[in-house]
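debug: dumping io for the single-chain case to check the tokenizer round-trip. Nothing else runs in this session.
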Amino acid sequence: MKKKRNRALAALLLALLLSGCGAERAPAAATSAPPQREADAVTFQAADVKNDMIPPTPEEVLAAYDRAVTAFGWFRLAPLPCGGDPVLVDGTFYRRVEYPGTASMAELKTTLRSLFSDELAERLVKEGGDLPVYREIDGALYARSFTGRTDPEKGDAEISVEQTAPDTCVVNVAVELMEGGGSVTGMEYYSFPYRYVGDRWVFTDFRLVNEQK
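debug: decoded output
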């Protein structure tokens, strides 16, 4: 099964993600800021995860890919929506996350593990090292501000799903390479394994295909 995505969808996703935290690296003293409007939420539910060996349908795999793109963007494009007064930690402002199903670090990890392998989920949470994107403060999840970029030289993407083994599906993504004038100069290809690991179907390798390095 195939479907095609265009730059308008990427722009919409980026606009939603950019409604997240507005924290900056701290000046001498913290100042309060008005809460920000919460972006439209993508639903992440336990029902999204198939806890059996029956391979998911192509439609289910594509839906999981969509959710994975959104969740990965929380770490690469912009943090989850948040608001309230900033909290100063290690010289950086963090604000409380205001997004359904992510009230704590445990809930964020549960969401990530519904989409990614344990190793990949843990690597995302630890990104930033001593200055992580997300921290738990007094039992609540907080995020710092950052802004990633999409690559203007990436165009439309064609996405297809194939089952390569009883416990493995693969999401294949072909992305147009663009030059300054907007004409297509070639294609770039990615494959993301979606495997049955333990008791769930998850991506064991993943990246944003239009992320600017």
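debug: round-trip ok. Residues 6-19, 22-40, 45-49 have pLDDT under 50 and may be disordered.
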